[in-house]
Write a structure and sequence with these properties.
two-stranded antiparallel ribbon, Spore Coat Polysaccharide Biosynthesis Protein SpsA, Chain A, alpha/beta, 264 residues, 38% helix
Length: 264
Amino acid sequence: MSSPLFSLIIVNYQSVQLLRRFLESWAEPLRAISHEIIVLNNDVREREMLRELALAHPGLVVQELGENQGFARASNAGAKLARGTYLFFLNPDTEYVSGSLKELETVLTTYPRSLGGVRLVDSDGSNEVWSAGSFPSLWGLFRHNCFGPPQHPVWEAKHFSYTDWVSGAALVLRRDLFEELGGFDERFFLYFEDVDLARRARSRGIVAWRSPCITIRHRGGGSHTGTTVQKQTYHTSQRQYFAKHRGQLETSLLTLAQHLFLRR
């Protein structure tokens, strides 16, 4: 059996209904290219529903992980199962809108030692804020909270653009490159595993980019049980990232700022 070109990897947690819409949206564009779809199930309560979904979508690979192991660990498990040249990590709360996977392949062929993202839009069609950007720093967080996003952010770009990192909601790279980087750092349960991957890639001279060759709608929050849990998890991963890449001083100041006034 020949290997597919793209391996779509999706982590499920309380998202089966969203996953149905995901699969429906991708049905037509995927006809044009060899692919496989791998779903990692982090929710034992949805096991039976996923079995039914797999019956309705022949070829869909569902891997049961038991307890919720987090996004990074589940994604790494999917990458180990994957046979494709390219790994395309996608959230279950995303839907294909427009664009060409063949054009995405062209970009990946042109920049083989790179990781990339596509155009992410919100439910209203506007570009998703912070779907790509600069590596986090304490100064950057201060500037964001005091003055808002930058004037010309990369997520508004209408053409291919280099960036520091791209969102794991729709992240693509060569499988052998992902393996070279050691996959996602599994210490990040959720959030910042994508930024960390890009940071480690940069240290090896591997660039990140965003291309609007494909537009994907990201409904956001589909896999979260509540805003309090979401914010707590985000802040924990943010501190982990700073401890790993920014040093003790910035991490301590960040921790204090989180308790006092940071919005996210």
